[in-house]
Write a structure and sequence with these properties.
With 128 residues, the chain is an all-alpha fold. It has six helices and no strands. Helix 1 packs parallel to helix 3. It starts with a helix and ends in a 14-residue tail after the last helix. Keywords: Mitochondrion, Mitochondrion nucleoid, Transit peptide.
């Protein structure tokens, strides 16, 4: 019985979209990691609570199949601020990139700034 559960979870992982812009914050990547850790032995893994496993699979399958989005449609595609989902996505990805640059640290920033090759530095006009 655990072999069929394992195959169902694998199929769900294949169907679940992956967002490369989110890097370590992606739900699809997290789901794949959790399935890999839960089914370490693959089809031979013994499940301690099969009912809970089935409930978890059904919940994830409903989310992946947009069950709740279809059941509870949105009136407008904006939030209370009036910003669309695409605008929020652009804003968030820009902020994540900025935070990644901020995490570099002082030493790396200084090394990047002072290790420029002569071709990168603009030439000065000759003096008279």
């Amino acid at each position: 019985m655990s072999a069929t559960r394992y195959r169902r979870f694998l199929k769900l992982c294949e169907e679940w979209p992956r967002d490369e812009a989110k890097k370590a914050r992606d739900l699809g990547t997290f789901l794949r990691q959790r399935v890999a850790s839960a089914f370490r032995e693959g089809e031979n893994t013994q499940i301690s609570d099969p009912e809970k496993c089935d409930l978890m699979y059904e919940s994830l399958a409903r989310i992946n199949g947009n069950f709740y989005r279809q059941r509870f449609p949105r009136v407008r595609d904006t939030s209370f601020t009036g910003v669309t989902a695409e605008e929020c996505k652009l804003l968030l990805t820009g902020n994540v990139q900025q935070m990644d640059e901020d995490k570099k640290g002082l030493w790396k920033t200084l090394m990047e700034r002072f290790s420029k090759s002569p071709e990168d530095v603009p030439e000065k006009a000759p003096e008279k």
